[in-house]
Design brief:
The complex is a heterodimer of chains A (114) and B (115). Chain A has 114 residues and is mainly β. Chain A is built from no helices and eleven strands. Chain B contains no helices and twelve strands. In chain B, the strands form three sheets. In chain B, strands 2, 5, 6, 10, 11 and 12 form a six-stranded mixed beta sheet that branches. In chain B, a hairpin with a 5-residue loop joins strand 5 and strand 6. The chains are: A mainly beta (114), B mainly beta (115). The interface between A and B is medium-sized, with 30 and 26 residues.
Chain lengths: 114, 115
């Protein structure tokens, strides 16, 4: 099946640890995104990548890092510098088209700091 | 800068009655607009999108939305609510008319459907 796969679905992190959330897509999309969702705040953009080996900071990039070594993969690392990492993380991908881009989302990953 | 405002954080309707979820946007460009739906603990699913073609856009599950430039609105409607429509709905505008592929999300409207 074509789509976006995020793993793990649930992750617990101890204080001071780095953790990595996986995102893989088989839609052959050029662009990939990471969003963070907190209750009542909608989605906020962490990082995005429009092409392999290139990525840009979004609105809340501090405390996060990404890589884009392959077209289909865009992992997100939540570092110990992120002060409040407990949230729902959503990965998305999309393709430039002339009539406006549509992006598609994975099922999300819950990260909880313990 | 582009922005989007969802006018109601919660909407409650009875099953079989119409649904109206309101969205206003601000954009310097000709915008692309989207509605997404999110069920609990799930990702977002695209309901419909407007990209400067027909102003009345039909989506999945009987939903539709009308782009009104004069009112800067893109309200989502459905003639008859079903229990399975209970979810959170996000209105989204594409920044720079889609050129950068960055989406600006509203804060969401939680739709409750009463039996």
């Amino acid at each position: 099946d074509g789509g976006i796969t995020q793993s793990p679905k649930y992750l617990f992190r101890k204080e001071g640890q780095n953790v990595t959330l996986s995102c893989e897509q088989n839609l052959n999309h050029d662009a990939m995104y990471w969003y963070r969702q907190d209750p009542g705040q909608g989605l906020r953009l962490i990082y995005y990548s429009q092409i392999v080996n290139d990525f840009q900071k979004g609105d809340i990039a501090e405390g996060y890092s990404v890589s884009r070594e392959k077209k289909e993969s865009f992992p997100l690392t939540v570092t110990s510098a992120q002060k409040n990492p407990t949230a729902f993380y959503l990965c998305a991908s999309g393709q430039f088209i002339s009539s406006g881009n549509t992006i598609y989302f994975g099922e999300g990953s819950w990260l909880t700091v313990v | 800068a582009q922005s989007v405002t969802q006018l109601d954080s919660h909407v409650s309707v009875s099953e079989g009655t119409p649904v109206l979820l309101r969205c206003n946007y601000s954009s310097s460009y000709s915008p692309s607009l989207f509605w997404y739906v999110q069920h609990p603990n799930k990702g977002l699913q695209l309901l419909l999108k407007y990209t400067s073609a027909a102003t009345l856009v039909k989506g999945i599950n009987g939903f539709e939305a009308e782009f009104k430039k004069s009112e800067t609105s893109f309200h989502l409607t459905k003639p008859s609510a079903h229990m399975s429509d209970a979810a959170e709905y996000f209105c989204v505008v594409s920044e720079d008319g889609g050129a950068t592929n960055k989406l600006i999300f509203g804060t969401g409207t939680l739709l409750a459907v009463q039996p």
